[in-house]
Design brief:
Number of helices: 9
Shape: globular
Strand content: under 5%
Largest sheet: none
Length: 230
């Protein structure tokens, strides 16, 4: 988060893509559980956040104001589509080539995609990049109307945010929901294998959950800007 406030998102995404690809390549050849755990906990996590999740969220917040909720919901479609499309591909790779080759392909392929997307990123919108084009007359207050509000004050600092009860309420709720969702995702294939299904069938369960997520994201995209977010 601090880096995104100081450096270009494009540069951060490029570095994160290399970090992710290199870490996954090492994991694919490693025989050490502790090394794998350390790589997943630190560089892989940082690569995913810097190369996608956090960087994209920050850029969307900068670019969109009127339709910010819709933009973020549509961007999150990628996670659902990934579960639908990528999970069966990885399942097929594991069955035919083994998990090590699958991890290598996932790391290098994912890192390459993130690096290519980084070239398309722009940190902030320009003067001609507007969500809603208004007529000049729309910008002039009518008689009796109030003038546009003054610019907002600088955003609060991290310590101020950490003292907000609403922040902790949202953080706990989102963390709990995310842990349930991630726990389900990583458990579907092992549960399927224990039940006698194949890896591909287990990957199909992930695709099914991705379809449900896709429907939810489309609903959020349609309604996210029409109700109070809090």
């Amino acid at each position: 988060g601090r880096l995104l406030d100081k450096v270009s998102a494009r540069k951060l995404m490029m570095v994160s893509s290399l970090l992710f690809a290199a870490s996954m390549a090492i994991i694919s050849q490693s025989n050490s559980l502790w090394l794998d755990a350390g790589l997943i906990a630190l560089p892989v996590a940082a690569g995913v956040l810097g190369g996608g999740t956090i960087s994209v969220s920050v850029l969307l917040a900068r670019w969109f104001t009127v339709y910010r909720g819709r933009a973020m919901a549509l961007a999150a479609l990628g996670m659902a589509l990934g579960g639908i499309v990528v999970a069966p591909v990885i399942g097929q790779l594991i069955e035919t080539q083994g998990w090590r080759f699958s991890v290598l392909v996932t790391g290098v392929g994912g890192g390459l995609v993130m690096a290519l997307l980084a070239f398309l990123m722009r940190d902030r919108p320009g003067p001609d990049d507007v969500e809603v084009r208004r007529k000049v007359t729309d910008l002039v207050p009518e008689p009796g109307e109030t003038a546009p509000p003054p610019p907002l004050e600088p955003p609060p600092g991290a310590l101020t945010i950490l003292r907000m009860p609403l922040f902790w309420l949202l953080a706990i709720a989102i963390g709990f929901g995310s842990s349930v969702g991630q726990g389900l995702t990583v458990s579907l294939v092992p549960i399927a294998l224990d039940a006698g299904l194949t890896t591909m069938q287990g990957a199909g369960l992930i695709s099914a959950s991705g379809i449900a997520g896709l429907v939810a994201m489309l609903a959020l995209a349609a309604w996210g800007d029409r109700i109070d977010r809090t």
